[in-house]
Amino acid sequence: MKQFTSVHDVDSLTRWVNDAIAIKQNAQGFEDYGDHKTLGLVFLNPSLRTRMSTQKAAYNLGMNTMVINMDKEGWALEMNDNVIMNGRSVEHIKEAAAVLGEYCDILGIRCFPGLQNKEEDYSEEVLEKFIKHCGVPVISLESATRHPLQSFADLLTIREQATKPKPKVVLSWAPHIKALPQAVPNSFSEWMCRAQEEGLVEFVITHPEDYDLAEDFTKGATITYNQNEALKGADFVYVKNWSSYTDYGKVLTIGEDWMITNNKLKLTDNAKVMHCLPVRRGLELADEILDGPNSLVIKQAGNRVFAAQTVLKKILETNF
Ligand code: CP
């Protein structure tokens, strides 16, 4: 495996989850895998979980890590080819990525969408150019349209916590005041649709009208604008806000009545509640849920280490 940027890089979710469970049970048992190898983590946007869980995963494999907050500490990057760089940008991605590839054996990059131009964001220009020019294996730390390390940790959490062979998983849009990317819900949907194909879950998406995700990510999911209908009998409710895909990057409603509360949870089969974090309390999710027994958000964040460790181990095994 040369890259890890989406579920399309995974041959079998069932096998990958089993691999992650085995790694979690013996996290320090693979310390020689990354001996003298360096993981570079490049952030064009903020992060808590992705940064620290991926570093911890690398340490567990005996790797060195280097982190750069490129947006604050690096030179302003130029993404376009054949331009005269007489403006704000100082360094072209061609050189920046290639130089990082000289220092690191594996690179991770976080590059959020601008949410201004759908075609530009959905072409994954930054991620693709980074992959093209760095010359080493690349892991997405959340790109314009996907967050695969998060989705892998989410699936691992669902498999660990499930009390039925094929639990009902509901992705429920949440209220927010800011325009957020579609990367987490796109990615979660893509992974759950694939998990459904493998017989691991039943998958439903619910959101207000005009918040449909791109069809490429939701093929196979049941989609409804009726949240109460979706919640009936749910075993897991995955809560996430996203801005409109059709009216690209816009907040069309704050949607306060979409917040999951204990009252709404009564419709479910005592569902566990998930969120990738960070979460705005009292807006996206009720305090009573986050502080209550049904919240899985901390376990999810904990599993980010083992998802990342599984991916890194596979890349180390197949490339070095
Ligand atoms: N869930 C997640 O990716 O968290 P960070 O943005 O803090 O890395």
Automatic annotation (TrEMBL):
<feature type="binding site" description="in other chain">
    <location>
        <begin position="276"/>
        <end position="277"/>
    </location>
    <ligand>
        <name>carbamoyl phosphate</name>
    </ligand>
</feature>
<dbReference type="InterPro" id="IPR036901">
    <property type="entry name" value="Asp/Orn_carbamoylTrfase_sf"/>
</dbReference>
<dbReference type="GO" id="GO:0019240">
    <property type="term" value="P:citrulline biosynthetic process"/>
</dbReference>
<comment type="similarity">
    <text>Belongs to the aspartate/ornithine carbamoyltransferase superfamily. SOTCase family.</text>
</comment>
<feature type="domain" description="Aspartate/ornithine carbamoyltransferase Asp/Orn-binding">
    <location>
        <begin position="219"/>
        <end position="313"/>
    </location>
</feature>
<feature type="binding site">
    <location>
        <position position="142"/>
    </location>
    <ligand>
        <name>N(2)-succinyl-L-ornithine</name>
    </ligand>
</feature>
<feature type="domain" description="Aspartate/ornithine carbamoyltransferase carbamoyl-P binding">
    <location>
        <begin position="2"/>
        <end position="160"/>
    </location>
</feature>
<dbReference type="Pfam" id="PF02729">
    <property type="entry name" value="OTCace_N"/>
</dbReference>
<feature type="binding site" description="in other chain">
    <location>
        <begin position="47"/>
        <end position="50"/>
    </location>
    <ligand>
        <name>carbamoyl phosphate</name>
    </ligand>
</feature>
<dbReference type="InterPro" id="IPR043696">
    <property type="entry name" value="ArgF'-like"/>
</dbReference>
<feature type="binding site" description="in other chain">
    <location>
        <position position="304"/>
    </location>
    <ligand>
        <name>carbamoyl phosphate</name>
    </ligand>
</feature>
<dbReference type="InterPro" id="IPR006132">
    <property type="entry name" value="Asp/Orn_carbamoyltranf_P-bd"/>
</dbReference>
<dbReference type="InterPro" id="IPR006130">
    <property type="entry name" value="Asp/Orn_carbamoylTrfase"/>
</dbReference>
<dbReference type="GO" id="GO:0004585">
    <property type="term" value="F:ornithine carbamoyltransferase activity"/>
</dbReference>
<comment type="pathway">
    <text>Amino-acid biosynthesis; L-arginine biosynthesis.</text>
</comment>
<feature type="binding site">
    <location>
        <position position="240"/>
    </location>
    <ligand>
        <name>N(2)-succinyl-L-ornithine</name>
    </ligand>
</feature>
<feature type="binding site">
    <location>
        <position position="280"/>
    </location>
    <ligand>
        <name>N(2)-succinyl-L-ornithine</name>
    </ligand>
</feature>
<keyword id="KW-0028">Amino-acid biosynthesis</keyword>
<comment type="function">
    <text>Catalyzes the transfer of the carbamoyl group from carbamoyl phosphate to the delta-amino group of N(2)-succinyl-L-ornithine to produce N(2)-succinyl-L-citrulline. Is essential for arginine biosynthesis.</text>
</comment>
<dbReference type="InterPro" id="IPR006131">
    <property type="entry name" value="Asp_carbamoyltransf_Asp/Orn-bd"/>
</dbReference>
<keyword id="KW-0808">Transferase</keyword>
<dbReference type="GO" id="GO:0042450">
    <property type="term" value="P:L-arginine biosynthetic process via ornithine"/>
</dbReference>
<feature type="binding site" description="in other chain">
    <location>
        <position position="110"/>
    </location>
    <ligand>
        <name>carbamoyl phosphate</name>
    </ligand>
</feature>
<dbReference type="Pfam" id="PF00185">
    <property type="entry name" value="OTCace"/>
</dbReference>
<feature type="binding site" description="in other chain">
    <location>
        <begin position="147"/>
        <end position="150"/>
    </location>
    <ligand>
        <name>carbamoyl phosphate</name>
    </ligand>
</feature>
<feature type="binding site">
    <location>
        <position position="75"/>
    </location>
    <ligand>
        <name>carbamoyl phosphate</name>
    </ligand>
</feature>
<feature type="binding site">
    <location>
        <position position="176"/>
    </location>
    <ligand>
        <name>N(2)-succinyl-L-ornithine</name>
    </ligand>
</feature>
<comment type="subunit">
    <text>Homotrimer.</text>
</comment>
<dbReference type="GO" id="GO:0016597">
    <property type="term" value="F:amino acid binding"/>
</dbReference>
<keyword id="KW-0055">Arginine biosynthesis</keyword>
<protein>
    <recommendedName>
        <fullName>N-succinylornithine carbamoyltransferase</fullName>
        <ecNumber>2.1.3.11</ecNumber>
    </recommendedName>
</protein>
